[in-house]
Write a structure and sequence with these properties.
This protein has a four-stranded mixed beta sheet with strand order 1-4-3-2, with helices on one face. With 139 residues, it is α/β, with parallel strands linked by helices. The chain has one domain: 2,3-Dihydroxybiphenyl 1,2-Dioxygenase, domain 1. α2 runs antiparallel to α3.
Length: 139
């Protein structure tokens, strides 16, 4: 699918299964973080929106201003972290490399790469919006 050429209606109609939409203060900053740290790709990025891909997964970023009439906006905390309680797991990302890159673009490494009992080596990285990104690989 050519995400660069889709209009909003066609994109919306193409979505299936489970979706992920992250509300962020600054779409451009989040795009830079995700592209730099995890090698994701942004499509149609604007100040208000971006389609993001990670491997064959697709999700969306929206600025707070796009949710002006959405009931969720009133629940967002004034101060970070926003994403408390959610882990966004990236099973095809090198935890060591992601931690090194995260520090360059202002990410916070909560837990350095660690071997876990469930067979994965993973790290915990917070973006400036407070979402916990967990790069993971099989040990």
């Amino acid at each position: 699918m050519d995400y660069d050429k889709l209009d909003a209606e066609t994109f919306g109609a193409s979505l299936r299964g489970m979706g992920l939409n992250l509300l962020v203060r600054d779409v451009a900053a989040e795009v830079t973080f995700l592209e730099t740290v995890f090698g994701m790709k942004a499509f149609q990025p604007t100040t208000d929106f971006a389609i993001m891909t990670y491997a064959d997964q697709v999700f969306q970023l929206h600025s707070d201003s796009t949710y002006h009439s959405n009931p969720l906006l009133g629940l967002l905390p004034e101060n970070p972290p926003r994403g408390g309680g959610i882990e966004i797991r990236l099973y095809d990302s090198d935890p060591e490399a992601a931690c090194t890159r995260a520090e360059v673009v202002g990410g916070t490494v909560l837990q350095p790469p660690t071997d876990k009992p469930h067979g994965l080596r993973e790290a915990y990285i917070l973006c400036e919006n407070g979402y916990a990104w967990v790069p993971s690989r099989v040990k």
